[in-house]
Every structure is written in structure tokens, then in C-alpha cells.
């Protein structure tokens, strides 16, 4: 056992209702329905729920009361749960788990009438270093020997006699659906089987006041390319590849819901007034997607104050109450991490704001003023498989990118709270982009991303990200900058870039729209990073020749 698991404190700054008896019954992992006993084998981390016993009314149950839970590696030496311990609490009543119970609760599964149990989701937790992808879940009774560490709010101090454990295996790391864990930049992609479709706004914040959204095939032929008319100028779209729905925001308060090439619904946000960015102004400023929870978030002006509004995309799409950002600024491109239930917002005031949106109607905000930025943070990115957060610095040259490990983050509660993590501002030599490093996107599932300029220029930088997280200072492990050529010019704000993993081969693909949103550049980032396909400069991080070869680069004309 590690030191933090052995250590027992008899005093804590937090007060709990202590149980008078120890845990004496078994725990099991199960699925969302709680109907599978001791499942132990799961496809993704978000499939794993904790259960309190067999599915019947007569099993020897757990002692009633409140419990903590956590996920570690099989040895128990490495804590993998990535949120604060206070969020990892559940209640046992009648001998069974009846749901999460904390100020920032984990998601509940569905009620199981066979034993009156409601299982609790274990995610978020980091990837295990165990080669067999084995994890250990701990259920920890809140006794007089239990407390949250006063130095690390993720750590629970407890006596081993108060804990029960169970091992489980996740077959693959959790990869968000295409369109999720993407910044609220201009364009989006929607995947369905082997088909990939792009939704591209014709307009932007301030430069091109053109209405409509272009819809085009990137892979496959599932739709007939079309221009979807819209009443007002659209600046951003985000797609849910599970439901097949796309949400787009106009520069005013309009929100458009699209299915295929049809506009099916128009909603009105709570926005009013304008927000002003280096690249333009807007009331609704962009939209990001959380396909796992079937929600979208809109960055918007609330009477001139920077804020957010969540949209529940259920059977009857419903806008939740708007939320003012306590930082006073939001990112040009915010992002939702649907695995960790985090909203990332790296803003031009060089504050990297993160909100825990497990309860999206009452998020908990945490601020991180980033010191040493040469200019201003412009957009938010993340590899949601590993929890590696990113933010490019606009006007930097060579490109400067913030990179931090959210699996090592410490979130300190407050009004607002603060957060820190193992991180650095990394300089990418030979990456000289128009207006500096501005847009960013990660092809989820590949650990490969792209950094772009804006307002002209044709250079982009492919980046290789760490394939694991949890220890050390994260770093971009390789990068290369190349020209697109062929008369291509980067688009305007919000940034005209996204990325996805091809369902027809698995490569990381970047999609960039040009200034007039009539042509897409499709770049295979996996091949671009391969020096046997794209030879490097002498210094090692630029293309030896320009433009990119046709095996890496192609173009699509869009309506």
C-alpha cells in the first residue's frame, strides 16, 4: 500500500457523519443499469459503475451511510481518479448503493428495481499504466479514521479496514465521439459508420456577413452536398455523432438545430449585448458539443458580460439558465471534456478557466492565470483520452502553446476556486503562423493535433501529443510546420479548423476552411508527421519542400 493509502488522520477540516461499523460486504463493478453483477470487463471508462452487491433482495448488504470511492492502479500505489475527493461520495441505504451524494456528484446509473439500487459512475479517471489495462476501485466508509487530505484535495486518508476493493479492466481508453472534445471553432464534423460529413458556416464574427451552412461529404457519400439557408449569419457549428444532430450559433441570439441538410428547429439564447475579441464581436460566439451527455454549450454575451449557456438536446431541446464567467472573459473557442465533465476556457486575458459542469446548472469555476505567455491565449484544446489540455498563444512566433496534464491537476474550491497542474509553455521552433498560434484541434483517439493561424497565411503545424499522462511535465513530443499552398488562405474568427480520426484507416485528419468558406483543405496529420512521407528541414521541424504532397493534402469544394 502507498503512503497515502496507509496514512490515517483523526482530524479533518471537513466534517462527515461517521459510520459506527466497518465495511463487511463485497462491492462489484457493473454497467449503467446495475443489472450485471461483477462485470469487470468494460469497453470504455465511462461504462464502469459501482454496485453494492448481487441483484436480489436478500444479499448481505453494505452498512448504511456515506462512502468515498476512488480508482487506482491494481497495486493501489497510483491514484487515477482525477477529480477532487469531495466529488467522489455516494450513499448506501438498505444495504445497497442508492446514488451519488456530494456537492459535485458523479453521474448515476438507472434505478434497478430488482434490488432498489442506483449505481454510480466511476469516471473521470486517468489511464492506468498497467499493461493489462487493469484498474482497482475502492469503496471507503466515512468513519472517524477517514478524511480528505489537507494538502491534496484528491487524496482520501483512511484505514484499510474501512475499505473494500474490486479490480476491473477497461479494454480501450475512452475516446469521445467525433465532434466532441473540440473547441467551439467555426466548422465541425459528424461521423456515422464509415461516413464523415462537414458542417461549415459561410460567415464569421465580423468579416464575412454571409448566411447559411455548407454541408459536404469528407468520407463516404451519405449526403448530397448542400447549402442550408439560415435567417442570420452563422459563426459556429458542433455535431453530435451519436444522435446525428448539429447545433449552430448565429452572431445574434439564434441557435439552429440541423439534421442532415435540413434546419429543423430555431431556438433563442439568453444572450444580449456584445463580447469583443481580437478577431471580432458577437452575442452568440460559438458552440461546443458533449455527445456523451447529449448537451451543447454556447459561449455568449450576457449584457456584455462573458458567459455560457447549456443546451439540453433531449426529446425537447431545452436551454438551461445562463451562467456568467467569474473570470470576466471566455475563450474564443471553449471546449467541453465529456469524460471529466469539465468546461475549458483559455481566454485572451491569459486566464485558463475550468468549470466542473457535472451539474451544468451550477458549475464550479476554477481559475489559472498563466504566467509567461508572450501574447494572449486564443483557444482551448484537449486530448480527452489522456486529459492533456492545450491553449495556443495568438501572435506568438514561433508558436507558443500551453500544455498541462489535467490528471495531475489540483482544484482548490473557492468563489471562484483555482487550479494548478503539471504544465509548461512550449515553444514550437519553425512554427511561424499567420497572426501566430491561434486555432487548435485534436483528432481524438490519435494523440495528434493541429495548430493554425488565422486571417490569411497557409501554414499549419501538426503536433504529436503524449500517449499517456499522470506523471511528469507534459510536452508536445514532435511537430512539423508546412504550407498548404494552392492559393489557400486561412479563414477568420472563430477559427476555421477541426480534426477527427478517420473511420476508414484511423489516421488523424485536420479540416481547414478557407477565408470564403468555399473550399476545405483536408490534411492527413498522421502522414504529415511521418518524415518518410513528408521530409523535414535541417532543423527538424519544418517541411523540406512546399506545398504538402497530394498523399497528405486534398481539397473539397463546398456549396
Features:
single chain; 559 residues; mainly beta; Methylamine Dehydrogenase, Chain H; six-stranded mixed β-sheet; 2 helices; globular; disordered N terminus
How is this structure best described in words?
With 559 residues, this protein is mainly β. The protein has two domains: 3-170, no CATH class; 188-557, YVTN repeat-like/Quinoprotein amine dehydrogenase (Methylamine Dehydrogenase, Chain H, 7 Propeller). Helices cover 1% and strands 40% of the residues. It contains two helices and 45 strands. The strands form eleven sheets. Strands 2-11-8-4-5-6 form a six-stranded mixed beta sheet, with no helix packed on it. A six-stranded mixed beta sheet has the order 27-28-29-30-36-35, with no helix packed on it. Strand 20 and strand 21 (280-282) form a beta hairpin.
Structural topology:
Blueprint: H1 3-6, E1 28-30, E2 41-42, E3 49-51, E4 65-72, E5 89-93, E6 96-100, E7 120-121, E8 134-141, E9 147-148, E10 156-157, E11 163-170, E12 188-192, E13 195-201, E14 213-219, E15 226-228, E16 234-240, E17 245-250, E18 254-259, E19 262-268, E20 275-277, E21 280-282, E22 284-290, E23 295-302, E24 305-312, E25 318-319, E26 323-324, E27 335-337, E28 342-346, E29 352-356, E30 364-367, E31 376-377, E32 381-383, E33 388-394, E34 399-405, E35 410-412, E36 417-420, E37 423-428, E38 439-443, E39 448-452, E40 459-464, E41 478-483, E42 497-501, E43 508-513, E44 519-524, H2 525-528, E45 553-557
